[in-house]
Design goal:
The chain has 221 residues and is of the alpha/beta class. Helices cover 38% and strands 16% of the residues. It has one domain: Rossmann fold (3-Layer(aba) Sandwich). The chain has a 6-stranded mixed β-sheet with strand order 3-2-4-1-5-6.
Amino acid sequence: MGRLMSSLRLLLVRHGETVWNQENRWQGQADVPLSDSGHIQAAHLAQRLRAEGRQLQAIYSSDLMRAFRTAQILGDTLGVQPIHETGWREMDIGRWSGLTTSEVATRYAEEWERLRAGEDLPRGGGETFAQFQGRLVGSVQRLLARHAGQQVMIVSHGGAVRAFLLHCRRLEMGQFRQIEKIGNTGLSEVTIFADGRAEIHSVNDTSHLDSAVLVGETVDA
């Protein structure tokens, strides 16, 4: 029992779809709203979690509107008021924001090739991967101190969820592609223990979405 009381069950949710997701544009910390499909996706996840009888002690969310609006839809259904925290924002990708991958690779060819070769440069002049991942891990450590023995939801971003799961699996930045891409409103579940260990229960569960609202795209951020 003591081991369970010193652990934290995390439900990690990626925000619903945006128009930039549809267009395969890198978003980063640009404040892009949910599309109509994104609202529907969030409602489907909320209904699923209510049907499953999930009991959440808290919902934390990135303050970017695509994540926080998703959290509000979930919170309204589950009876929990979401709390926004900047620590759960997507990676700051600076001047890449709003561009497609091909546009980034063309306009910033040297930077792109150095990143592909394994250097951890500030993406688009924003954050390095180490800075980004460290921000997320620090946010979880604070939650463990605040919510030990409880179940908490985090509504964040595709790149953020994958970066944290990479940490949970004790993999290096160069192994990032070993973490499955996270779809819009994809649900991943992890238990975090006080000694730093993590047990991953599921990754990118989108069983709440049917073909009408299951949208795939290549860019996480």
